Amino acid sequence: MIRRSLEGAFLKGLKDKLYQFMQGRNGIDEMGSVLIWTSLILLIISTLLNSFILSLIAFALLIYSYFRVFSRNLGARQAENQRYLAQRERLRFKLQSLKVRLGLHKTHKYLKCKKCSKKMRVPRGKGKIEVTCPHCGEKFITRS
């Protein structure tokens, strides 16, 4: 019984010291988590392929992720994380748009406006049609 209480006190003391050490530091955020998981996956692949270059890349990512975790420059790390999140959202939006376009490719055709390069959707199988760009108002004739 005494041993358990000593172990509990020791672990609590360790937890308190770790908490004090991490105060004012960045910690793990979205970008750091992705970097750590990517480095672990690359380490597994490099082990399977026996690739020294992949191992170096994986270790470099791991070192950078730990640098970010223990960094005290919170403003810079938060700005990096915000840029990462913005890029991830752009990629997610593009993939979602592609999924929608692939689902409608039999019934609709996608065109680019010749003036403003905006994308628009027209129905297939209507022959020659006059299309008006909803963004700039440019009119042109195309086959659908």
UniProtKB/TrEMBL annotation:
Q: What is this protein called?
A: Zn-finger containing protein
Source superkingdom: Bacteria
